[in-house]
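Deviations from the work plan: none for this task. Representative record:
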Amino acid sequence: MKNTLLSLNEATRTVNSGSNKVTLLDNINLNVEVGEFISLMGPSGSGKSTLLNCIGMLDHFTDGGYTFLGEPVHSMKEKNRSKLYKEYIGFVFQAYHLIDELTVYENIETPLLYKSVKSSERKAMVADMLDRFNIVGKKDLFPIQLSGGQQQLVGIARALIGKPKLILADEPTGNLNSKQSEEIMELFAQLNKEGVTIIQATHSESNAAYGSRIINLLDGKIV
Amino acid sequence: MIKNNIKLAWRSIRKNRLFSMISLTGLTLGLLACISVVSVVLDDFSYDSQWSRKDDIHRLLTNVDMGNDVSNKMSASWAGLRPALMDNFPEVEAVTNIYTVDRHIKKNIEDTDVIDLKALETDSLIWDLFDFKVISGNPKQFIHGKSNLVLTKTLKDKLFPDEDVIGKIVFSIPSFGSEPTPFLITGIIENIPSNTHLRAEALIIEKGRLEALYKEQYGSFTRNYVLFKTGTDVNKFSEKLNTWYTDFVGGETKYSYEFQPISDTYLNSEFDNEIDIKGNRSTDYILLGVAILVLFIACVNFVNLSVARSLTRIKEVGVRKVIGADRKQIITQFLVESLMYFVIASLIALPTFYLIIPFIEQFIGHALQVSLLSSLEYLSLGFVAVFIVAVITGTYPAFLISGFKPMNSLKGLINKNEIYGQQFIQKGLVVVQFSIAIIVLVSVFIVKSQLDFINNKDLGYDEENLLAINPTSWDGKGESFHKEITNIPGVTSASLANWRPTFGSGGMLKSIDNPNNLGSKMQVWFIAGDVHLPKTLGVKLISGRLFDEKLITDAPQSKPIAFNNEEKKVNTQPSILTEFTANALQVTKMNTTIPELETNPIGIVKSFHTQSLRYDFKPVVIVGESNPDYSSMLIRVKEGTSSEVTAKINKIWKQMFPNKYLAMNWVDDLVEKQYLEEDRLQSFFSFFSMLSLLLSAIGVFGLVAQSTEQRIKEIGVRKVLGASVKSIVVLFSKDYVKLVAIAIVIALPIAWFATSKWLQDFAYRISVEWVVLLLAASIVLVIALTTVVVQSIRAAIRNPIKSLRTE
Ligand SMILES: Nc1ncnc2c1ncn2[C@@H]1O[C@H](COP(=O)(O)OP(=O)(O)O)[C@@H](O)[C@H]1O
Ligand SMILES: [Mg+2]
């Protein structure tokens, strides 16, 4: 039985740039089932990041419908939207976006703090995550003391700690060498097997191949 | 979460050294200033509130109706009111007389050492009013036959360290009266707290006066302190007393009475020229205001720097939002960080305050009985206040930074409007800060100029090299003592007179019809002195003549003026008028009797300032009087002979009055003493203006440091493109010059208004000159500019390649 995670219905994103209206995303129709691993592909500027941000509720569509787990996101109050977001979505960035002032441990722990998870539970969850990603030894280091691949591992661990249903990854390997990229993709495949839905934006055919479905974007349209 | 926030805040404080140093220095100084001033003010407001019966203890004040709607308030009242109050009014529990006096004690009669002490001269009933704690002896039991002396612990330890002194007799050397008075030490009490207008080191307990209240309205005055039964409505009671008194004297009286709560006496005694221990409410408010301004400047620094710095943390906030933080959580984080700064600043300021208490005590001239540290209540109130200030201060930066959209902040894209608003507020705050600095600086200049003006103003007599001996009884030896003094080589002249400079406008007062305004009254003061008085004072003759030594009529032996209207003997004694008096009385011709004053003016002298320049001239008439029983003495000394002369005077005094204390002052010291309050205010202002300037400067320094830091790349690019150091400095300085200019425009009118208002307290005052305003403005401008220029030069001379590479 298929289980829809989210669906976009003629979703459109426009911005006003001076006096003209620029369309960044143009009538996107998309259904994402639970357990899918989707790769978004397309040239630079085609709208991949914009689409991920809108799906991730960091940005919003200006027109069309967006339903997430049966709930109409487009007509939702900001407060409920961020509740939904906090509970179900994790983000991974090309530039990692770790907090420089925090150690590896603290970076991973922070989302739990924002969710007011109890201290003992937090400790266990972070320990699990460190264990799983094999970075226990690095837990007290600061981001600048890590390689890019290690930083991205921390980034993914941080995205996963809240047990999201959906991971949105915007060119997660863009700053990594091919060996590191492969490791990250293996990890994604593994996570996907465990039931996490993943949407990643990527330029790389080989990365895209890890996914179960490829969506091509061009000038804000699915092609 | 909070624990985490605190950890984060601590890291952030440690990471940004420059910012943290500047912010902490500013906040610490601001808090320290506030803690100190608040403590001084708390102490001032705590006076006489420590007595357990404080609500029931009142001082009895007399209002004397001088006619013409003028009334004179005094802290003395008929001695006879004491038995009258105690016998006729059940509301009154006890009445005691208290005078604060200086006494001079010899431990043994043959000693030459004299110990000065401040004591309360009173009677046994004082024990009913005030809870002095007895340490040893049984001083509450009055021992008849002698004055009983009760020492405070400190005084006992100072005078008789390891001695049992109860029952010992010491001797008081009087200033008038010729024999030493034996004092019997009857007890030792805990120190009298310093926050009472009855501050003293000892109690001298006398048998107590037993004077009756006279229907004829004469008698002697004393200071009555009344203890009411708890719950008495004192307002009602004073009405009752006034009605009773009017009835008692037969229906007509110029005296009426009011009761002043004991806790009010310290701050509400402007009318009372006879007590030294009194505070000034408006000075307290000025102090508080200035301290709050300094703290405000420090907070403005903090806000500005936090805002400037938070712009570098926009990305961090974006990330936090992406990983699930909502706005409230971000605001909390930044608020906690701000709070941490205040906590650290408080933790530095409090012990520092503790260390500087001795300096503060030296400044205010007495021990600080109450301070912010003296009760848990005050301390926690203080912390609550700091907390509120911290929250207010931290709120703006926290709201600002938490408001950016996460995606934009991740990309480093910031809405122009948000930035514009922020810069507008930041600039506004800088303007406010500099305005305050300018206002305080102008105040320093004005207070200083006014004090210089007062110190240099020609008083109309020569206050330099002039000695004044306190009023004393001469025991018939006045003339011969005068002769001995005049024979001292360094003495040019000396005079026995019933008035000393700064002690009121004269020795006696008469109310006459005002010739300039028919139907109204005029108060004329009389100074009675011997023929040498005008010369000794150094007043300047304008017309007519001064007293003549050879004319016996110039200074008759008898009392000069008959003040009792009933024995109207016609007496047209010669007198000297001041110019002001001559104008007020419309006197143009000499030797024409003024019947109302029963005097015959023989000369007019230039008006002289009998008291502080706060007050205008008063009508003053100098009349001659030889060989008074009781008077002061003024002694004119040749320049440079002061020490020989004072030594000689002491020697002559010892010979002629061996058992009497010589109390003598230089008149210029007395004159200066009138401006103690202003002197204090001036040192206070100087200190706080330095502080506010310093804080404003480091605030701007921090801002410029932040903005050059943020624009390092821009500076690098500009330099690569060929910009000179000068043009870069101009680029950065321009804005600040504009801000200081605006501050000047705002601050100068306020400063002008405030200082003019302060000056209005003085009958003789400087005017607020433009030069002073401009000087203050230029100083602030120069300081601001120097700060900006130094900082931007530092940025501009950095190697452009280096700064570009760091990006
Ligand atoms: N806030 C915005 N205002 C105007 N144009 C934007 C904005 N955000 C993105 N764009 C434009 O939208 C297009 C799509 O951008 P993006 O989604 O980042 O593409 P991709 O991630 O595929 O490279 C680009 O041309 C970009 O310049
Ligand atoms: Mg992109």
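The first strand of chain A starts at residue 4 and ends at 17.
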